[in-house]
Amino acid sequence: MVVANRLAVDSVTEPDGTQGWKLSPGGLVTALEPVMRSADGAWIGWPGSVDTHVEPFEHGGITMVPVSLDQTEVERYYEGFSNDTLWPLYHDVIAQPSYHREWWDSYVSVNRRFAERAAALASEGATVWVHDYQLQLVPGLLREQRPDLTIGFFNHIPFPAYGLYSQLPWRRQILTGLLGADVIGFQRTADAGNFARAVRRLFGYETRGSSIRVPLENTDERRPERSRTVVARAFPISIDSASFAELAARPDVVERARQIREDLGNPKTVLFGVDRLDYTKGIRHRLKAYAELLEDGRLDAADTTLIQVASPSRERVAAYMELRDEIEMTVGRINGDFGAIGSAPVHYLHHGYPREEMVALYLAADVMLVTALRDGMNLVAKEYVASRIDGDGVLILSEFAGASDDLRQSLLINPHDIQGVKEAIVTAVEMDPRERKRRMRALRRKVLENDVAKWSATFLEELARASHATASSSAPTRDGVELEEAGS
Ligand code: GDG
């Protein structure tokens, strides 16, 4: 069973006026859809619109179990606490997090609803996999009601350093919620380290490698030392690499990529960025570097084009409205300063596209720009690599995206260092074709070997091991192992 904020489908109105469902875009669904289909699983989540009361239904081999949210809950639990408190806090306070007690109260009650739904539907001894920062209390709440379950949690976004995490007025409650899981997965080893440090600082629990010893409530006075072991470690997420490679081989997609370049006037260089319109993605930094290169004359607007797809996201949150205004003003300024009739240096598209079109854009792009200021993983970087079956193309990748741990043969950048980003763009544009292919070959090996099926299998294996260890459990031994100091 998967428990996630969003159901894996969006409601759509068919041409004949009837209501239907289609698989939704976005990191989590892109990642889990193939796994769930093959596991014949159930997916609990919010359908994405207010007061939608729908009975469970089947879609694409997955049982969808909708959880309804009312208007106030959408404002407080989702737009508020999830996207205006936790999201900026966990992304290193790039934007200022807002702390409101009524948002927290709503977060608690919605997490409780998800947990109750899962507790009511899960079969005896089932495996439940809870996803992401919107539902951090669910593992703890679920364990209280259903100790028979094996519970996993995966955090798709970063986990911040203690100095930032400690701002959160409800920092202890969140940790208690997460520690209800048997396995807590993070994107990077650094995230797991930040989590373990927060646990030591706030609770003083012992941690040893990826194991955390959580004392059980003292129900048995003869065994005051009883504890359970929670595993917290990195499981870097990936994509369904083969399906991107297959799309990239389709003649209509290849033709579409050619068409895109032709429609742009066959420029020498096509640069490409695609992101949810989010302040974590570094779109402004990218535009600034590009504009300066045009200004300096190191790139020529006559033979260079940047396509920036910014898919609409969280449009009712104030920080996102401001960001959109800022980006659109900057794009307008660049096109005004450097454009000519029939040629615009930036093609800015505020739309979502079908996956075929995304792959055609990946194929049309000489240089892919991933300039996130902070990003759990960044699947776009991996999708670009998987799509380049021609072995060509250059990936510029922020070291603050989890993907940079693995994709070392990209051009790694610090997006705050605008000069460094400019140099990387010039290096990419001028790179010798043999060097491009050498790098892309190494990147492709990584992405094709480590796909999403391997990611979920690795997580689920760890979860099975953890549940087995608990079943035959005793407290972890201290013999011969140095425990990290509480409070360090
Ligand atoms: C979160 C974490 C982590 C985007 N626009 C369109 C579209 N997309 C797809 C991309 C990609 C996905 O959405 C975005 O994934 P990212 O990883 O880049 O970023 P987030 O949405 O922020 O995801 C992130 C991820 O969770 C998974 O754990 O990597 O760090 O922030 O797959 O292709 N897809 C289509 N049309 C679009 O217009 N079809």
From TrEMBL:
Pfam families: Glyco_transf_20. GO terms for cellular component: cytosol. GO terms for biological process: trehalose biosynthetic process. Coiled coil: none annotated. One of its GO terms (molecular function) is alpha,alpha-trehalose-phosphate synthase (UDP-forming) activity. CDD domains: GT20_TPS (cd03788). Residues 467-488 are annotated as: Disordered. Belongs to the glycosyltransferase 20 family. PANTHER family: BCDNA.GH08860 (PTHR10788:SF106), TREHALOSE-6-PHOSPHATE SYNTHASE (PTHR10788). This is Trehalose-6-phosphate synthase. It comes from Labedella endophytica. The lineage of its organism: Bacteria, Bacillati, Actinomycetota, Actinomycetes, Micrococcales.
